[in-house]
C-alpha cells in the first residue's frame, strides 16, 4: 500500500503546472487547422546509470528479466494506450475533427526517437487512436481491433530530438551549467550530497544531474512494484526538489533552450505560415513520441507559463493552431496533459500573451522568433554529419 501512496505523492510533487482544465468541445468560432503533439513515453524500467545507484541491483534485474533495462513496462503500455485515447478524443471526429476515424497517411505524421520505449509507446498509442473501421479491418481476428500505423525514426546520433546526447555544443553548455549550478542553487544540498555518496558510492557534487537520475530510479522502482529504500524516505522531499533543479539545467540559458526545442518550434511555425499564406499543408496532426527533455524544451521555447516540473511518464504537450471562422485570423493555443489516464488536459498561457489562452499567431511568432532553429542549422551548430 505504501508504494501506491508514495507514487501519488511523487506525482503531486511534480505536477504543479498552472492551467485550466478543458474538455473536448469545439470553440464555436475557432476551427483547429493544425496541431503538433509531443509526448513522453510510458513508465519504463531503470537504465544502467540508474541501476548503478541502487543497492538492490539483483532484485531490480530480476524484475526486468522480461523487458530488459530502460524498457516499457506493462504499466507503461497501459499509459501509452491512454495517450492514444486522448489523441483520438481530442483530434478525432468526436473532438476537434482534425483527423478522420480512418487512418489516412496524408492527415498525420508520426515520429519517434530510436528508443524501444518511445517506439513501443507510439505503437500502443496508435492502437487506441485508430481502431480499424470496417474498410480497414484486415481479418476476422486481431484485424478487427488493431491495424499497423507507421512511424519514422532517425538514428540517435542524427536526431534533433536527442540533442542532449548527440549535440557537442549542448554538452559543452551543460558542463558549464553544472559547474555554475553546483556553487549556486545546489549549495543548499551539501549535507544531502554526503549522505547520498555514502549510500550510492557516487559523488553528486561532481555531477548534480545524479539527483534526477536517483529520483528516476525510485520512480521506476515504484512502477515495478518495489518499495524505495527505507533510508531514502525521509530524504524524498529534498531529493525531489534537487531533481527538479537538475532537470531545469537543461534549459538554463536561451542557447540551450534553442538547441533543445528550436527545431520543433520551427516545424510548427513554418507549417502555420504556410497555412496563413493559403499554401497546401499535409499532415495537419504531427506526433512526436519522445522524452521529458523534449516536452520541456518545446514548452520553454514556446514561452508557456509554467514552473517546469519534470514531465511525468505519459505527459503530453500540444501547440494547436486555430483559424477564426468569422475573421480568418490565426491563433495558437497551448495544451498540457500532465499524465494520460490520470489527469485532465489544461489550457495554458504564453508569457507575454496572458490576456487569453489563445495567442494571435503573429504575436506568438514575434515572441518566440529568437528560438527558431531550422533542422539543417541544428546539424551545423551541433557538428553532426548527416545525409541532409
UniProtKB/TrEMBL annotation:
EC numbers, comma separated: 3.1.3.2
Transmembrane segments: none
Signal peptide as annotated in the record: 1-19
Keywords attached to this entry: Disulfide bond, Glycoprotein, Hydrolase, Signal
Domain of life of the source: Eukaryota
Keyword Glycoprotein (UniProt): yes
Recorded catalytic activity of this chain's protein: a phosphate monoester + H2O = an alcohol + phosphate
Family: Belongs to the histidine acid phosphatase family.
Protein name per UniProt: acid phosphatase
Amino acid at each position: 500500500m505504501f508504494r501506491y501512496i508514495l507514487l501519488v505523492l511523487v506525482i503531486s510533487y511534480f505536477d504543479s503546472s498552472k492551467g485550466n482544465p478543458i474538455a473536448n468541445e469545439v470553440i464555436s468560432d475557432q476551427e483547429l487547422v493544425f496541431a503538433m503533439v509531443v509526448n513522453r513515453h510510458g513508465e519504463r524500467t531503470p537504465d544502467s546509470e540508474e541501476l548503478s545507484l541502487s543497492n538492490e541491483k539483483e532484485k531490480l534485474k530480476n524484475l526486468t528479466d522480461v523487458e530488459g533495462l530502460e524498457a516499457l513496462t506493462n504499466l507503461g503500455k497501459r499509459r501509452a494506450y491512454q495517450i492514444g485515447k486522448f489523441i483520438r478524443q481530442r483530434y478525432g471526429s468526436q473532438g476537434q475533427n482534425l483527423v478522420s476515424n480512418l487512418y489516412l497517411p496524408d492527415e498525420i505524421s508520426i515520429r519517434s526517437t530510436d528508443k524501444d520505449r518511445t517506439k513501443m509507446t507510439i505503437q500502443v498509442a496508435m492502437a487506441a487512436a485508430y481502431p480499424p473501421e470496417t474498410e480497414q479491418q484486415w481479418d476476422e481476428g486481431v484485424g478487427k481491433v488493431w491495424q499497423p500505423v507507421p512511424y519514422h525514426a532517425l538514428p540517435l546520433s542524427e536526431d534533433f530530438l536527442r540533442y542532449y546526447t548527440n549535440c557537442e555544443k549542448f554538452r559543452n553548455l551543460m558542463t558549464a551549467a553544472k559547474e555554475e549550478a553546483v556553487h549556486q542553487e545546489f549549495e543548499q544540498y551539501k549535507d544531502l550530497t554526503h549522505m547520498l555518496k555514502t549510500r550510492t558510492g557516487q559523488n553528486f557534487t561532481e555531477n548534480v544531474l545524479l539527483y534526477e537520475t536517483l529520483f528516476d530510479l525510485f520512480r521506476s522502482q515504484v512502477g515495478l512494484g518495489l518499495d524505495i529504500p527505507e533510508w531514502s524516505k525521509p530524504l524524498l522531499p529534498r531529493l525531489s526538489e534537487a531533481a527538479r533543479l537538475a532537470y531545469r539545467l537543461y534549459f538554463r540559458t536561451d542557447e540551450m533552450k534553442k538547441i533543445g526545442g528550436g527545431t520543433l518550434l520551427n516545424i510548427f511555425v513554418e507549417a502555420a505560415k504556410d497555412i496563413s499564406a493559403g499554401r497546401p499543408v499535409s499532415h495537419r496532426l504531427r506526433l512526436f513520441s519522445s522524452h521529458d527533455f523534449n516536452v520541456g524544451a518545446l514548452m520553454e521555447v514556446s514561452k508557456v507559463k509554467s514552473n517546469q516540473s519534470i514531465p511525468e511518464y505519459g505527459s503530453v504537450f500540444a501547440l494547436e493552431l486555430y483559424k477564426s471562422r468569422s475573421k480568418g485570423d490565426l491563433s495558437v493555443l497551448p495544451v498540457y496533459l500532465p499524465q494520460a489516464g490520470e489527469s485532465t488536459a489544461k489550457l495554458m498561457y504564453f508569457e507575454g500573451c496572458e490576456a487569453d489562452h489563445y495567442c494571435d499567431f503573429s504575436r506568438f511568432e514575434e515572441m518566440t522568433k529568437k528560438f527558431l532553429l531550422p533542422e539543417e542549422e541544428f546539424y551545423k551548430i551541433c557538428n553532426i554529419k548527416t545525409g541532409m
